[in-house]
Design a protein that fits this description.
about 400 residues; alpha/beta; Rossmann fold; formyl-coa transferase, domain 3; six-stranded parallel sheet; three-stranded antiparallel sheet; about 15% strand; elongated; CoA-Trfase_fam_III; CoA-Trfase_III_dom3_sf; transferase
Length: about 400
């Protein structure tokens, strides 16, 4: 199936988005066969081209989140650039955009205008705070989404200030939620013929993954606080081995707690009054953690891994990227791709996820040069070579 028809072939996406959340949504669709046309300002391009580490002129972050796309340069501030978008709209299924609310409307490219041109259009709108509400027009990036969404408050340990979450997961979560929304909207359109718009925000994506925190506060009035390196509700957390490796482990369920105690040489512990129920374990976990930490500290990582495997206690070394590149499980899952690049030969990047048995995704290139497909796209809209030359001369493309 690697060279066969892709499941999203025939879906055309116009990406009016930059940095991470919108482009990540777009790249997910491109990996499964959608034609994604990325629009960038002439000359400047997406800011992510200049963010993060690079080799020569190649930005690693840019290349990963824009792989497999086509590149069109277009000045959306200019009426001629806006006209090109309007000529593209009848030929696309999805528009991804992450301007502040009202910007596209000011340019005559808002939902109410574009859906008149193409009633089957799906328009996904990504912002920090959403399209409505008192903060809707405020700027924001992943850190702000995390802070406002409640996840930054929970990051770190109880004896320290909140720690900035990394990587920029509100962006990636929002891209993923938006991609799911787009696929749902396309399914609705297949059934009804009706397009729609999607309102995605960074803070709501962060808020959605705060587990039980909302119910706990709403019902009990209890604010969930930061924990420690060890879990406060059951045995679990991270411990250092004798040879300096950090290992994460967890035993939240009764049968896992029993396995952990057997491993520690205390098989009777789960039946004692202090540990026989989840509620009692939660109260008495601190008394057990010192024993667990001492057990890890007395053994090398190789000994710890072998014993955890033997007793089937969930665990993992806390992996650095060097660990990832050496790990046999990553290799067996083919999770690091060597993606073709015209300057560097190949770039190692994470593989496509999830893995589909009949129609897996694939990656054809590690991000296009700025405006690489401009002539092809405009020619398809009926612009002549002379027209394109004039647009280029005027700085529109």
């Amino acid at each position: 199936m690697q060279n066969g028809k892709m499941p999203l072939e025939g879906i055309r996406v116009l990406e009016l988005a930059q940095i991470v959340a919108g482009p990540f949504c777009g790249v997910l669709m491109a990996e499964f066969g959608a034609e994604v046309i990325k629009v960038e300002m002439p000359g400047r391009g997406d800011d992510i081209r200049r963010m993060g580490p690079r080799e020569g002129d190649v930005g690693f972050w840019w290349s990963q989140e824009n792989r497999g796309k086509k590149a069109l340069t277009l000045d959306l501030h200019d009426p001629k650039g806006q006209e090109i978008v309007k000529r593209l709209v009848p030929h696309v299924d999805v528009i991804l955009e992450n301007f502040r609310p009202g910007i596209l409307e000011k340019w005559g490219l808002g939902w109410e205008t574009l859906c008149q041109i193409n009633p089957r259009l799906i328009m996904a709108r990504i912002t920090a705070f959403g399209q409505t509400g008192p903060r809707s027009h405020g700027p924001g990036f992943a850190a702000i989404g995390s802070a406002f969404g409640g996840t930054w408050y929970l990051n770190g340990t109880q004896d320290q200030p909140p720690v900035r979450p990394t990587p920029v997961y509100p962006d990636y979560l929002t891209g993923l939620f938006t991609a799911f929304g787009v696929m749902t909207a396309l399914r609705h359109r297949d059934r009804t013929g009706e397009g729609q718009w999607i309102d995605s925000s960074l803070f709501e994506s962060a808020f959605r993954i705060t587990e039980y925190s909302a119910s706990m506060y709403g019902r009990l009035g209890t604010v969930r606080e930061r924990g420690s390196r060890q879990h406060v509700g059951w045995p679990g957390g991270a411990c250092m081995t004798k040879d300096g490796h950090w290992v994460a482990y967890t035993a939240p369920a009764q049968h896992l707690f029993e396995r952990l105690c057997n491993m520690l040489g205390q098989p009777e512990l789960p039946r004692t009054e202090a540990y026989k129920t989840p509620e009692m374990r939660s109260q008495n976990v601190p008394g057990l953690l010192q024993q667990i930490e001492a057990w890890f500290a007395d053994r090398t990582y190789e000994e710890v891994e072998r014993t955890l495997e033997e007793f089937q206690v969930p665990y993992s070394r806390i992996m650095s990227m060097a660990d990832v590149f050496e790990d046999p499980h990553y290799a067996a899952r083919n999770m690091i791709l060597d993606v073709p690049h015209p300057e560097l030969g190949t770039l190692p990047q994470p593989a496509v996820v999830p893995k589909l048995s009949a129609s897996p995704g694939r990656v054809t290139h590690a991000g296009p040069e700025i405006g690489a497909d401009t002539d092809e796209i405009l020619s398809g809209l009926g612009y002549s070579p002379e027209d394109i030359a004039m647009l280029r001369q005027d700085g529109i493309v």
